[in-house]
Specification:
By secondary structure, the protein is mainly α. Helix content is about 65%, strand content about 0%. Strand 1 and strand 2 form a beta hairpin.
């Protein structure tokens, strides 16, 4: 109790700073994946223990996460579709994680350095997604039992009861998120690096837990690791994976050092390396590697006499016993960072390229590495310690301001997508999501302006421009500006016909139908026959709507027999069975030869 009282003031500061920085989230609602996983997920609306550990929205594809399922089920029973309680509990979990991390850092660093590193973890903008986005509560849920297990693993002599608690906590972390499995590895590495012993017991327990985890995952949850390939492959081939590793690592490092660019659902891929998108990131990664190696060599020959406050601490009842070997500290935190970042490199494939909430685990390893640098060099620099204090305060203030501003972006979907679509202009998911929200908000003028910016943006992909033209046509149609709508649809079709192999045919089919619908409504029947040629119909032989619209055009042009033929095909398509094939029609053959 005396030890906790000694650091009580730090705990209060962490709590107050956390509340001050993140209090805007209390006024935010649900966003993004909160809708399918919480609001529109009937499985968590009623408590069903079988669905929590069996197949569900949380136990599907590559993921087996029964603990978040249980967590949201309990919260939903109290709060329903009101977001306040979800945000409150999530913030409490993040602050608690920060307090426990501070205690963990005290085993390695002086009070001031441990506190500074903890504040960075608490307020860093890259962690805002894990605090403001309700669906990302899994970050705190898997981190809490993992860090508690590490804290319990500090002693060389581990009682049977403590050992059992450590294993149970590690198992809970793994059931919360797959990343939690890494805490098993960290506990073993920690006890090996710092020569605490009992490695065999922890290894055996880890294997047993792994077997039980796989049994629950496979037999109860019905989730297999190979089902991870059901995820969209943002980076599909191994050469592309290798090409994108440096940019992925560089993104997290850059965001950690200069968190100005923040956006959800980043699904970019580097396919053609250039100086800006690959060489810079590769050089940055190589520089980091060189610095780590050089610093490790320096620590290897480092004078181990006690040169810092932490290294002068003695084992008493009122202080936390520190690990003195700075090289071992650096090795441990380097391994923490390496294994944390390794699982983010698209091996296996993930549902997006990078995500801020995924850095919740590896950021601790990076902070620990920085902490070792501080412990070694700060006491040797003969400068007034007030300088360090002022610099630290400035850094925390700047990070806090950026995080405070970022919390407002999570107010609702419209606000979040409006902000992040500016940073992620060439992201199809964000474009579709933002356009949908603008439609729901009946903000057609803003939608048109946004789509025009997508079309004019130089780096927009072909698929994105075609989609933008299609959405633009629909927006003009709502405004009864048919000529503008027709022009937009025609632009989309022009881009498609020039690159038919690069665009999904079902999507092109929708664009044709959108155009034909407007032309029909505008009584431009001859234009329909000009656009919908025999080749077009051969390309979409099972589109009943397209054939039906052509039948209407033929009828209005007085071609009754052709109208009957097309209407007959449309009727057959609408009643066709999956195993049947429509025989060639002479009308289509004639149109093909005419074109």
């Amino acid at each position: 109790m005396n030890t906790l009282q000694k650091y009580e003031k730090y705990f209060y500061i962490i709590f107050v700073v956390g509340i001050l920085i993140y209090f805007p989230i209390f006024f935010n609602g649900f966003v993004w994946d909160d809708y399918p996983y919480i609001l529109n997920n009937p499985q968590i609306h009623l408590f069903d223990f079988a669905s929590i550990f069996g197949p569900s929205y949380f136990n599907f594809g590559f993921f087996y996460r029964p603990i978040p399922d249980l967590y949201f089920t309990i919260l939903y029973s109290f709060s329903g579709q009101h977001a306040f309680l979800y945000h409150l509990v999530q913030l409490v979990l993040h602050i608690t994680s920060s307090v426990l991390l501070f205690i963990f850092f005290l085993f390695f660093f002086s009070d001031s350095i441990a506190f500074f590193l903890t504040l960075i973890f608490l307020v860093h903008p890259i962690n805002v997604e894990s605090v403001a986005f309700i669906g990302a509560t899994q970050s705190e849920l898997f981190f809490l039992p993992g860090i508690i297990a590490l804290l319990l693993s500090q002693k060389k002599v581990v009682s049977q009861q403590r050992f059992l608690w450590i294993i149970v906590l590690l198992f809970l972390s793994a059931l919360t998120k797959e990343t939690g499995i890494l805490f098993f590895l960290l506990v073993v590495i920690y006890r090996y690096v710092f020569k605490l012993g009992k490695l065999k017991d922890f290894l055996v327990a880890s294997v047993v837990c792994g077997f039980i985890y796989l049994l629950l995952r496979d037999v109860v949850g019905g989730v297999k690791f190979d089902s991870g390939f059901l995820l969209p492959k943002i980076i599909a081939t191994f050469p592309l994976i290798l090409l994108n590793i440096p940019p992925i690592i560089f993104y997290y490092l850059k965001t950690f050092l200069y968190p100005s660019y923040l956006a959800i659902w980043q699904s970019w891929t580097i396919t053609t390396p250039t100086f800006s998108n690959f060489v810079i990131s590769l050089l940055a990664c190589l520089l980091l590697l060189v610095l780590v190696v050089v610093f490790s060599l320096y620590l290897n020959g480092y004078n181990k006499k006690e040169v810092s406050v932490v290294q002068k601490k003695k084992k008493t009842k009122n202080t936390i016993q520190t690990q003195k070997n700075v090289l071992d500290q650096f090795i441990f935190f380097s391994i923490w960072f390496i294994i944390g970042i390794a699982i983010l490199l698209q091996i296996p494939p993930l549902e997006m390229t990078v995500a801020d909430r995924w850095f919740y685990f590896p950021i601790v390893g990076l902070l620990g590495m920085i902490g070792v640098v501080f412990e070694v060099f700060i006491p040797q620099i003969k400068v007034n310690y007030k300088v360090y204090l002022y610099v630290a305060i400035i850094i925390i203030i700047l990070l806090s301001i950026r995080s405070f501003i970022r919390t407002f972006d999570y107010k609702d979907n419209l606000t979040l997508y409006a902000h992040d679509s500016v940073n992620q202009v060439n992201d199809m998911y964000l474009m579709n999501a933002y356009v949908t929200e603008l439609k729901n908000d009946n903000n057609i003028n803003e939608e048109i302006q946004y789509l025009q910016s997508i079309i004019s943006f130089q780096d927009s992909t072909l698929n994105q421009k075609i989609t933008a033209y299609d959405y633009l046509g629909l927006a003009y149609e709502v405004k009864n500006e048919d000529s503008q709508a027709i022009s937009s649809f025609e632009q989309a079709i022009t881009l498609y016909t020039k690159n038919p192999n690069d665009i999904n045919s079902s999507f092109a089919q929708i664009i044709y139908n959108n155009l034909v619908n407007v032309l029909n409504y505008d009584s431009r029947y001859k234009d329909i026959l000009t656009i919908v040629t025999g080749n077009t119909l051969k390309r979409f032989p099972y589109d009943a709507c397209l054939f039906g619209n052509v039948a209407i055009a033929q009828y209005n042009l007085g071609n009754q027999q052709s109208a009957i033929d097309y209407a007959s095909i449309a009727y057959k398509i609408s009643h066709i069975k999956e195993t049947e094939i429509i025989p060639p029609n002479p009308v289509i053959t004639k149109m093909c030869s005419a074109n």
